[in-house]
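Our consortium's second objective concerns turning raw sequence data into structural hypotheses that experimental partners can test. To show how far this objective has progressed, the report includes one record in full. It was chosen at random from the queue rather than selected for favorable results. The single chain below, 96 residues long, was entered without modification.
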Amino acid sequence: MLESFLLPGSRFDAERADILILLPPGYPDTAPDMFYLLPWVRLVGKGAYPRAADIRFDFDGKTWQRWSRHEPQWRPGVDGIWTMLKRVERALEVAA
């Protein structure tokens, strides 16, 4: 879990969020395909949740906002947690 992660400026109704990335069985040969935010965030100006980010996920006694982002281009033996972190950053940047 990444605590108090700085979100892209002026895009969301929160400045920071905790980010949870669950590693699937078979990782690092199998890609993580979702990540989760707490608190839940909405888009500034629209008041809506970002695309495919409106489902709850209960983990460790908390209700997280699930961001469903499936990436078919995972390179076993090359990609890892840093690749996933870049994907999280990109998803937050382009959220609409």
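The partners drew two points from this record. The two ends are 24 Å apart (CA to CA). The chain has a mean pLDDT of 94. Both points have been shared with the crystallography group to help prioritize constructs.
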